[in-house]
Specification:
Structural class: mainly alpha
Strand content: 5-15%
Low-confidence stretches: 3-15, 20-25
Radius of gyration: 25 Å
Helix content: 55-70%
């Protein structure tokens, strides 16, 4: 059970003091559920590029056989995306992100011995 700080009524000297009282557990858990929804929404809005979900699932893949297939598929996706980007100022951020993702995949391939 958690504790919350509540301001009590003023003491006889006219100066208030703080006392600890039990949290209303229902409210606590409702707030936690609300925070979870906000976190999920923030995570969804953080994904700016169409390929980011595929990148994340590839990097987190633990099965060696699937990892090789995922890496090759993701590399193809990223190279195609680089071809689609025009080099315009609004594409620079994604271009840099794609290049970084490709460098990370190269390291992953080297570490895991993927041809």
């Amino acid at each position: 059970m958690g504790l919350s700080v509540q301001k009590s009524t003023p003491s006889c000297t006219g100066v208030g003091f703080l006392r600890y009282a039990p949290l209303n557990e229902g409210l606590f858990f409702r707030r936690c559920r609300g925070l979870r929804k906000e976190t999920v929404a923030r995570e969804k809005s953080h994904r700016r590029f169409s390929w980011e979900r595929q990148y994340t699932s590839t990097v987190l893949e633990s099965d060696e056989v699937r990892l090789g297939v995922r890496v090759k598929t993701l590399e193809a996706t990223l190279f195609m995306r680089l071809l689609d980007l025009t080099g315009a100022p609004q594409d620079q951020e994604e271009s840099k992100a794609v290049e970084e993702a490709l460098r990370n995949l190269a390291v992953l391939k080297e570490e895991r011995g993927i041809a």
